[in-house]
């Protein structure tokens, strides 16, 4: 495993939208929730390039210099107003069907219902391309913003959809406080919180 201190993290901007969408599409291609929404292998490749430009104006968006990982954080007090246009919804329905649309909105409703009300940094997405897993890249990217959480004394929050990622989050101080099990034999989302560590930075 590489030393995560060797990984260069940079803030992403609008010019990086296409690359960010590609990174997250690769990273979430086998994600249990993505597969629950649609079994079509093209789903993540369609979804993330569409969503990323809508989130860039609201979040703290970062990537590693090697183009192998990306993370989208939403700062405290910010609630993105993300709306898909009619053309995007029509393309969604045509490609993936009504069942996929209904499952996507059911996921959004469940996440919103359980989302914390107190100020927090929300890790909406973090992903590493499959070929770069196990090199400390995800840890470096995660730690970059957790230092900011500690500096500002703010809680960090995420929903973990992949059990394989649980040890990574736990190593960085996150703990599972509750779970959401999606219907129709869907996967479980682990709702994880991390309290700021005093005096760490």
Structure description:
The protein has 201 residues and is an alpha+beta fold. The protein has a domain at 4-143: Aminopeptidase. 40% of the residues lie in helices and 21% in strands. It contains six helices and seven strands, in the order βαααββαβαβαββ. The two termini are 25 Å apart.
Biggest sheet details: 7 strands, mixed
Record the strand order, biggest sheet.
Answer: 1-2-3-4-5-7-6
The CATH class assignment of one domain is Alpha Beta
Report the uncertain regions.
Answer: none
CATH superfamily of one domain: Gcn5-related N-acetyltransferase (GNAT)
Number of helices: 6
In angstroms, what is the radius of gyration?
16 Å
Short structural description:
This protein is an alpha+beta fold. It contains 6 helices and 7 strands. Helices cover 40% and strands 21% of the residues.
